[in-house]
Design goal:
alpha+beta; 2 domains; OB fold (Dihydrolipoamide Acetyltransferase, E2P); Protein Transport Mog1p, Chain A; 281 residues; five-stranded mixed barrel; globular
C-alpha cells in the first residue's frame, strides 16, 4: 500500500515538473520586443567648413563646423581624422546629435565627404565671417563677436543681444481648412553681459549662491578664470576683473529645444570675449 502511494506521488511530481518546463519554455521562446539600440538614433546631415576647436573646448570635442548661416556645431570625430578636411571650403558631415559634458550638444561624426560650394561665397576668415562684427562696450568694458542682424539693448552697466528664434505656439492654421500648418511665433534667445553691484570677491559671491552644481571654468581670449552655472536651459558664467568687478554673462533661451544651435553660438561668442578699457568721464 505504501509503495502504491509513493508511486502515485512520484508520478504527480514528475507531471508537475514536465508541465513547469513546458510553461517556462513557452515564455522563453516567445518573441521578445526589440530593445532600443544606438543604431536606432536618428542621423542628420549638415554642411559647412570644419575648423579646429577652441582651446577652452578641447576636452569636450575635436572640431567645430561653421554652417552657411555662420552658426556653429560642435563635432566629435569619434576616431575619424577630421584634420585633413580643415581648409576645405565645404564638407558634408553625417552623425547623431548627443548631449555631451556641460550640456553641450555635440554631433558624433559617422561619415564625412567634401561637398560642392554653395552659391553664396563662404568667408575665408573664421574670426570675421560674413554677417559678423566685433561689438565693443566701453561702459561694460568688454568686446565680443556678434552677428550684425541681432538687436542690441544697452544700459549703464549691461548690454544684451537678442537672437531671433521662431517657436511653435501650439496653434494650427493655414490658407486652406485642414492644412495643418504649425503657426510659428517670433521670440528671442537672449545673451546678456552685466557688471554686478557687489563688493564681494568672486569666490565669496559664488559661495553666497549656495549652489553645489557650479563649476570652475575659463572664458575669453585670455582664458579668464570663471565659474559656470546651468539651470535648465539657462547658462551663466561669472568672471572677475581687476579683483573688483564681477561679470555675469548669461544665455537665456526663449524655449526648451531638443537641439539649440544658439547655445553653441553662445559658447563661441564668449570664447572671443576680451576686457577693454572703461569709458572715461
Amino acid at each position: 500500500m505504501a509503495d502504491k502511494r509513493f508511486s502515485t506521488i512520484f508520478t504527480v511530481v514528475v507531471y508537475a515538473a514536465v508541465a513547469g518546463m513546458l510553461v517556462f519554455g513557452y515564455f522563453e521562446t516567445r518573441e521578445k520586443p526589440e530593445q532600443p539600440t544606438d543604431s536606432l538614433k536618428t542621423e542628420i546631415v549638415i554642411q559647412g567648413a570644419i575648423k579646429p576647436i577652441g582651446v577652452n573646448m578641447k576636452n569636450v570635442a575635436t572640431h567645430i563646423l561653421i554652417k552657411d548661416d555662420a552658426s556653429v556645431v560642435i563635432l566629435d570625430g569619434a576616431g575619424m581624422d577630421l584634420d585633413k578636411y580643415i581648409g576645405e571650403k565645404r564638407v558634408s558631415v553625417r552623425g547623431t546629435m548627443e548631449l555631451g559634458p556641460s550640456n553641450k550638444e555635440i554631433l558624433r561624426v559617422s561619415d564625412i565627404n567634401i561637398a560642392p560650394e554653395p552659391e553664396i561665397k563662404k568667408p575665408e576668415d573664421y574670426n570675421q565671417p560674413v554677417g559678423w562684427d566685433i561689438y565693443k562696450s566701453a561702459s561694460v568694458g568688454v568686446s565680443v563677436k556678434y552677428k550684425k542682424d541681432w538687436e542690441i539693448e544697452t544700459a549703464a552697466k549691461s548690454f544684451s543681444f537678442k537672437l531671433p528664434e521662431q517657436v511653435e505656439n501650439g496653434a494650427v492654421g493655414g490658407a486652406g481648412a485642414g492644412d495643418g500648418v504649425i503657426q510659428l511665433e517670433q521670440k528671442f534667445d537672449i545673451i546678456t553681459f552685466e557688471i554686478l553691484s557687489s563688493t564681494q570677491s568672486l569666490d565669496n559671491y559664488i559661495v553666497s549662491l549656495n549652489d553645489s552644481t557650479i563649476q570652475k571654468s575659463k572664458i575669453g581670449l585670455d582664458s579668464t578664470a570663471a565659474y559656470k552655472r546651468v539651470l535648465g536651459g539657462k547658462i551663466t558664467y561669472y568672471a572677475e576683473r581687476e579683483s573688483k568687478y564681477i561679470y555675469k554673462i548669461s544665455y537665456i533661451p526663449a524655449a526648451n529645444k531638443p537641439f539649440d544651435p544658439n547655445r553653441n553660438t553662445f559658447y563661441e561668442i564668449i570664447s572671443t570675449l576680451r576686457f577693454i578699457p572703461f569709458a572715461t568721464s
